[in-house]
Amino acid sequence: MAMDWDRLRVFHAVAEAGSFTHAGDSLNLSQSAVSRQISALEDSLGVPLFHRHARGLILTEQGELLHRTVHDIFTKLAMTQARISESKDRPQGPLKVTCTVAFGSLWLTERLKEFIDLYPEVSVTLVLNDGELDLAMREADVAIRMLPPRQPDLVQRHLLTLHYHVYASPDYLKRRGTPKKPQDLDQHNLIVFGEDAQQPVTDVNWLLAAGAPPRKKRRAALRVNSIYGIFRAVQSGLGIGALPHYMSQEAGNLVEVLPELRGPSFDAYFVYPEELRDSKRIIVFRDFLLRKIAEAGL
């Protein structure tokens, strides 16, 4: 017997919600109507799909199998619906963007107003996370990554190359003086990464060794496990730190010191799943980012 689409839709809602009541709320159906649809589906298949107990519902082995397939189908249907609706003149639909906390907080959020004004029918969600969300599992639609993507089947577009420069606040330099040569860093508070920091370069704490005798590293005044934390500490006048150059443009109150010192550089990428290659909302967001990066001279 062919499986009924309405019953499959109800089954999917129940499997996701874990109860007839919650599924009924999302479907605008009564609990009894939902229960009848599930019973009819189980009768047509000749197997139970749920274990029913006092605390709710648990999928049976056959229910798990059906749920995986139905979930894939409904996910693809939702994507197809979005792509069909996007075939109109204007990009529209949800756009979930993930990027690192620092780049998202300091650079991207300030520019999103212009994008949203340009494309009001695109509904943007921004997820700031220094880890990697799984784009293949649709945890986000697109990502701005500070490392080349490791997942297969992802399209990547180079956005910019980021360079580490050395900065301090005017207040700190007024109190402690400005280092004139790398060796002068011996006399200054240095803010560097902690051991558990996830960073795109291997020699993250190169500042501790810059200008120091071979095999002798300076002591750090503060270790922080995120670049955003280092930025805020430098900004507060605590000491000197190495930061990607875009941060000084956004802060406005940082002073570059020892401009001859250049730390490691790394690349940022715009990344999205292959299946979204033709999505208009992703194309316009990518082009918007590239334009804003060019305008900023990054």
Write the layout of secondary structure elements.
Elements: H1 5-17, H2 20-27, H3 31-45, E1 50-53, E2 56-59, H4 61-85, E3 93-99, H5 101-118, E4 122-128, E5 142-145, E6 154-168, H6 170-176, E7 190-193, E8 222-224, H7 227-235, E9 240-244, H8 246-251, E10 255-256, E11 265-273, H9 280-296
Parallel strand pairs: 3-4, 3-5, 7-8, 7-9
Antiparallel strand pairs: 1-2, 5-11, 6-9, 6-10, 6-11
Task: Report on this structure.
- The protein has 298 residues and is of the alpha/beta class.
- The protein has 3 domains: 5-85, Arc Repressor Mutant, subunit A (Orthogonal Bundle), CATH 1.10.10.10; 93-161 and 267-296, Periplasmic binding protein-like II (D-Maltodextrin-Binding Protein, domain 2); 162-265, Periplasmic binding protein-like II (D-Maltodextrin-Binding Protein, domain 2).
- Helix content is 40%, strand content 21%.
- The chain has helices at 5-17, 20-27, 31-45, 61-85, 101-118, 170-176, 227-235, 246-251, 280-296, and strands spanning 50-53, 56-59, 93-99, 122-128, 142-145, 154-168, 190-193, 222-224, 240-244, 255-256, 265-273.
- The strands form 2 sheets. Strands 3, 4, 5, 6, 7, 8, 9, 10 and 11 form a 9-stranded mixed beta sheet that branches.
- Helix 1 crosses helix 3 and helix 1 (5-17) packs across helix 4.
- The chain starts with a helix and ends with a helix.
